[in-house]
Amino acid sequence: MSAIRQLTALEILDSRGRPTIKTACELTSGARAGASVPSGASTGTAEALELRDREPRRYRGLGCRRAVANVNGELNRALAGRDFADQAELDATLLAVDGTPNKARLGANALLSVSLAFGRAVAVERGVALYRHFADVLGEPLRTLPRLTINLFSGGKHAGGQVPIQDVLVVPASARSVDEALAMTYEVYQSAADLTQRKYGMRALTADEGGLAPPFASAEAMLEDAVAAIEAAGFAPDGDVGLAVDVAASHFFRAGRYHLEAAALDSDAMIERVTGWLADFPIVSVEDALAEDDWDAWPRLRPRLAGRALVLGDDFLCTNPARIRRAIAAEAADALLLKVNQIGTLTEAAEAYRLARSAGWRVTLSARSGETEDDWLADLAVGWAGDQIKIGSITQSERLAKYNRLLEIEVETRLPVVAWPGTR
Ligand code: PGA
Ligand code: ZN
User: Fold this and answer.
1) Catalytic position from the list 22, 339, 390, 402
2) Which of 28, 288, 292, 421 is 20 to 30 A from 307 in CA distance terms?
3) Average pLDDT over residues 270-276
4) Same domain, 157 and 25
5) How many angstroms separate the Cα of 397 from the Cα of each of 232, 366, 407?
6) 137-158 pLDDT, tens digit each
7) CATH of the domain at 288
């Protein structure tokens, strides 16, 4: 049992300089902790509603004062002085107070800030590390540390759309620890920066998540340059360092066609194109290769990639249990990208996680393009034994806060990195 004494929310800024919300939760035991909420740019349409002020003259409408007021006012009044048996009871109360299917009244950002701050305060009250508390919330033991997938090149909505594909990430597949994975990634990133300077005459320009963003001629050129950077760093593509791709295809899908560079591909042509990448490049994971509502085509994509690369759903699944159930039934994917703020409470995210695992899927825990210096994602990825974690590049402090937390957890727990993707 944990009783809330007070919730106190504050508008803070994310890594893009946009407002977001941070909430502190104080329990009657005196335990107190805060949590900040991230925010996406390449968002799925099925995401829970992020409440923004819509005052055009302040932060171009993106202020979060209403979400803050909802925590300090209504949610504080409804929750303060009440005892909660566990996270599930707290989250169920949040949903009941909001009363809408997509958290539109009080805002998913407001609700999630309370859900996370409560979780962290209870961990403090119990005197356990946050990753252990998250494992207990799920009811699973600690098992492994996640495999890192780290942004190297960016495009799409995170980089002004210079190439439609959103992210090419490196996967240090042979690394036996987080520590080793980061050291390998540093070499690849530096090689990629040199290549970008030599080939495109630019070095420092990075996108929202810190990926390099030169004007690639095509998606294939982006992948070729990533392989060149891996080789220049002295690693074997495939064996040592593989690639993950976030196609984020919803964002160039219009009127039934995928507008990839000059082409306007139908779903099957898009599937062929992506399948071709697997033949040519050491890709171990493909996220949102198709648009979020191209439900008919996803089941045709999956068998083409299965066994070679993960068929990972981000906007497609939106960490939404109903969408995940439908995708499992249709055999439309085999991996879930889990972003807690797509759904809005820890308990619902845990339900999404359990569903994915019940179907034998892999799970990637993911940050957003708008992040804060808060590091709870690292604890969540360990507590929930994610197969992959996707935080962004290694150049910006809001990303490094999570990598550094993983390094700390690695020393503290001595857990092994998950044996995925393994030798191919
Ligand atoms: P977002 O994108 O955080 O901008 O929505 C991240 C992703 O698509 O994985
Ligand atoms: Zn994505």
Assistant:
1) 339
2) 292
3) 98
4) no
5) 26, 16, 14
6) 999 999 999 999 999 999 988 8
7) 3.20.20.120
